[in-house]
Amino acid sequence: MSSPGRDLDAEIRAALTDPSIQQAVGPAARTVAAARRDAVEGFAAYDAARDRARAIKESAIEALPELIEMAEEAVERAGGTVHRAEDAGAACEIIVDIAQREDCRTAVKSKSMTSEEVHLNAALERAGVHVRETDLGEYIVQLDEDRPSHIVAPILHKSLEDVRQAFRHGLGLDDVPESPEQLTQLARQRLREEFLAADLGITGANFVIAESGTIIVVENEGNARLCTQVPRVHVALAGVEKLIPAMADLQPFLELLPRSATGQLLSVYLSVITGPGWGRSPLVEGDRAFHLVLLDNGRMAMRDDPVLREALCCIRCGACLNVCAPYQAVGGHVYGGPTYQSGIGAAWEAGVRGLDTAAEFAHLCSTCSRCQDVCPVRIDIPWMNSALRGRIRDKKGDGGGRFGALLREPRRLYETVRRTPGASWLGELPPVRWYLEKSAGVDRRRPLPELPSLTLTEWYEQQGGAVVHEGNDGARVEPSASMVVLWADCHTEHVETTAGQAAVRVLQRLGYDVVVATGACCGRAALSQGDVPAAQRQARGLLGLLEPFAEAGVPIVGLEPSCVSSVVCEHEHLLPDEPSAMILAIRVQEIFDFLNDNTSAVGNILAGAGAGGSDRNGAAAEQEVRGASAGARTVLVHGHCQQKTAGWYPAVLEVLGRVPGVEVRSTTAECCGMAGSYGYKTATYEVSRELGRRLVGELDDMAAAAGSQGVEDVLACGTSCRSQLRELGRTVPRHPIELIEEVTR
Amino acid sequence: MPASAQPYHETFAAALGVLGGRARRVRGGRAVADAIEIIARQHSDSASVLYEPGGLVDDVALHLALRARGVKLVSVESAGAQPAAFEIGLTSVELAIAQSGTLLIGGDVGGWGLVAALPRIHIALLRTSDIEPDLSAAFPRFERAFSHGQRNWVWVSGPSKTADIAMQLVTGVHGPNMLEVLIVDDQPGGRG
Questions:
Q1: Domain check: are A56 and A138 in the same one?
Q2: pLDDT at A529
Q3: Which of B162, B168, B171, B179 has the highest number of chain A CBs within 10 A, making it the mutation to test binding with A?
């Protein structure tokens, strides 16, 4: 049920200390995510299938009104009936009416999120029709009077003991079997009787083929088959977005859905059902009946909404939930609305229930973007989420006042602190922290970043290097063939200057004339807080700074993955009418991506490198390492979430792997949890800390496995990741470029 | 194409084995009857089998051979059939996918789908020549049959499964917990 006035902070605290959620959700989600990864890695045509599926969905959404009519005619031809339901209430009325007209007293139902969305069971029960959920997970949910926490695995949040408890209470048993196997057999036995007695079978549909009026139902247990074949009446409830034009269009979805959902090549059962079949059944007297209920409930309005329209492409595989770090930490009841969970869930809840429902949990997205990477139909969930946050801000006001505005533009924040004498110690004074928490939601428990005395560009100017600032544009620096621009994002310029200096030196050792450019923020911070106009303004400013170099073909490299990915992945949304934004997106590279493109030059500077650093003769060091692998130095690397989504992380591992005498091991955690302002905000601080602790736990395990003496370095690619680890971890993390700089001295 | 150079029936059997089903190659009607009889005697007190007419199952010699062995075959269409009472269901298969161990079963008789859904054991008869290497090879054949009027299908990849409880895989939830595929060799020395 929708719950106005949810206290999400309390829900988060409860989930983080709930042993079932903590033991069940994260490991289960990660297991399924790993199965998905293996399945798509073994599928050579994966990307082609994604493109095809996406194109089919887009054209189907475009042609939706025609497809609905086509399906109506086809289902009637096949001997069934189509009903259009404008909203949730209408869908329930229609199905209750069918049940009453057909004199149905009992219904068996397979898993259908759409039926959860319209609260169908309650409506049928009110009308005197007893509904039995038959998917094992949903059956347990029903026994426990709970609700699903995952669109594919409804009881992902329940431990084995929770399930036993549900059987004990729900069935009134004193003695409940111990094992999942026995519990499953008990459920089979109970449910089989209900299947055979039921008058009405209710299912959803994964796809509806408009041309033939056929529904496709994908499942593993076989309960949907029994729901569709045993009772005399079959009602399928499907959102209109499930329509695809023809059977020929189904293939890419069959290739993608089971792989993405569970890592299976195909699900155990795929039912292809057209109308009431051949009408007769030995279990039924007379003809069987088939009804298809096509539900709008906000979907046609989503279709007209430039942001939410993309959500209609969703095939409900749940892959985005499984990789979602906040989801793993708190589960789908907390990070979700009444029906749909996580980032994609915010879009769906906004579409079917309204912005207020989405607003209750949308801010739990850390915009880490891992969901976008695994989406089989390439839905840009992070962008949708940012745009939704913008609407929520517009509706509710942004709060935060002047300081909130500074948080959306890190450069201005850092500059303000630099201009304010004593700001760094003032900032940590309790009354100041109290004020920041009240006015801008900055959690007082999170230490503020420390700013070194010199910015990167001030340091570089002292070195006699060429520097370009916003406003005093690149006119005075003539582009040349040997030039590379190191774009100093806000964090590299003001906070992570050591990493910036290392990058300058490495680029110089590669023979480049390095220009350091700094100025406008990339828009990432504003975007992640939903301030789209500010993000657009900032993106335009950055474009002004870097455009002359991009136009001249000068490579532009950046250190901070979230800022680089902002330019490469988000600016097309922010500046759709600026052709030069496209050019900039092509020119800007993450530094390791750039190094990986310069293989031979990088090979040359690494040739003399040894794990021991500059004080050794390179060749001797290398020989020593080869001679005694026990002396190999293990470095642990944590990739930045957006860097992984953009596909740049393998380059980091590739280049680090070429450093002689170094053994590189990578974490598997999707996100450190810091995610820019996410880790600072009171509303998400606890989730952020929990994710950070999990990452630290993984690093500790890796260090132990490597023999802790061998681990000398923890490298993390993002500013946020490093600040999270600095606070929670046991080592001081560095940017990977600092290791490259050290070994090439 | 699957990566291996195995004939499709071997790839199919291997894939189905991973899913918890079993596929065997049988040569000739007698061997099919033998295999069905063994399963029927092991798993059904009355040695009775519910079947869906069509395809390989309609082979008169098979019916005679099973009757001679004392195995009772009951058509799902026959008057008074009680499909829920059977332990074993027997169907033909139109098409199979080797890579994923998938059977594509199309039906055109009343109650067809029940035969492979209600009993604990599903025996499927499959021709070697009906095994396609992968989905992209099988799908056009499926789609052709579909567009020619075969509008109801179930695709089966192994016995019924769930991992809903504590992520532990359990075989045999609502559908059959045993899937026995008998691959009838109709192409000795052929591509199979």
A1: yes
A2: 85
A3: B162
To test the contact with chain A by mutation, choose from B164, B169, B170, B178 the residue with the greatest count of A C-beta atoms within 10 A, namely B164
Flag whether pLDDT at B79 surpasses 80: no
How many structural domains are present in chain A?
Answer: 4
Q: Write out chain B residues lying below 8 Å of A281, CB-based.
A: 110-111, 114
Domain range summary for chain B, segments of one domain joined by +: 8-184
Whether A210 and A100 map to the same domain: the answer is: yes
pLDDT for A620:
43
Residues A551 and A417 in one domain: no
Chain A environment of B155 (Cβ under 8 Å): 266, 269-270, 272
User: CA–CA separation, A690 vs A310, rounded Å?
Assistant: 31
Using a CB-CB cut-off of 8 Å, the residues of chain B touching A133 are none
Report the CATH number that the domain containing residue A655 is assigned in CATH: 3.40.50
Q: Do A212 and B151 touch (CB under 8 A)?
A: yes
Q: Is residue A21 part of a domain?
A: no
Whether complex ipTM tops 0.90: yes
Any domain includes A9: no
If asked whether residues A577 and A624 sit together in one domain, one would say: no
pLDDT at residue A281, rounded to an integer: 83
Q: How far apart are CA A338 and CA A349, in angstroms?
A: 8
Residues A97, A232, single domain; the answer is: yes
CA separation, residue A383 to residues A6, A365, A368, A371, A527 (Å): 25, 11, 11, 11, 9
- The verdict on domain B8-184 having CATH code 3.40.50.10420 is yes
Quick one: DSSP state of residue A148?
-
pLDDT band at residue A399 using 50, 70 and 90 as cut-offs: low
Report the Cα–Cα distance between both ends of chain A, in Å, rounded.
Answer: 62
Tell me if A23 is assigned to some domain.
no
Helical (H) or strand (E) element with A195:
helix A180-197
Residue appearing with tokens 């189509």: A82
Is A375 a domain residue?
Answer: no
Per CB-CB distance under 8 Å, the chain B contacts of A272 are: 146, 151-155
Interface test with A, best of B174, B177, B178, B179 (most A CBs within 10 A): B174
Dist. CA A608–CA A743, nearest whole Å: 8
The model's pLDDT over A159-206, given as tens digits with 9 standing for 90+, comes to 999 999 999 999 999 999 999 999 999 999 999 999 999 999 999 999
Q: What are phi and psi of A518, to 5 degrees?
A: -145, 155
- Taking an 8 Å cut-off on Cβ atoms, the answer to whether A229 and B114 are in contact is yes
Residues A610 and A548 in one domain: no
- Of A297, A317, A335, the domain-final residue: A297
Angular region, A100: left φ>0, alpha ψ -120 to 50, beta rest: alpha
User: End of a domain among A270, A297, A324?
Assistant: A297
Whether residue A434 is found in the same domain as residue A463 = no
Angle at the Cα of A252 (from A250 to A258), degrees rounded to 5? 95
In this predicted model, what pLDDT tens digit does every residue of A512-545 receive, in sequence order? 999 999 988 999 999 988 899 999 999 999 999 9
Q: What is the DSSP string of A242-283?
A: GEES-GGGGHHHHHHHHHHHHS-SS-SEEEEEETTTTS-BTT
Separation of alpha carbons B151 and B134, rounded Å: 21
Q: Does B118 touch chain A (CB under 8 A)?
A: yes
DSSP label of A447: P
For residues A436 and A460, membership in a common domain is answered with no
d(CA B49, CA B67): 11
Chain A residues with CB-CB distance to B170 below 8 A: 180-181, 184
Domain range enclosing A419 = 401-440
Radius of gyration of chain A (CA): 28
CB nearest to B157's CB, from A187, A192, A268? A268
Instruction: Assess contact for A434 and A544: CB atoms under 8 A.
Output: no
Tens of pLDDT, residue by residue over A426-447, are 777 888 888 888 888 888 888 8
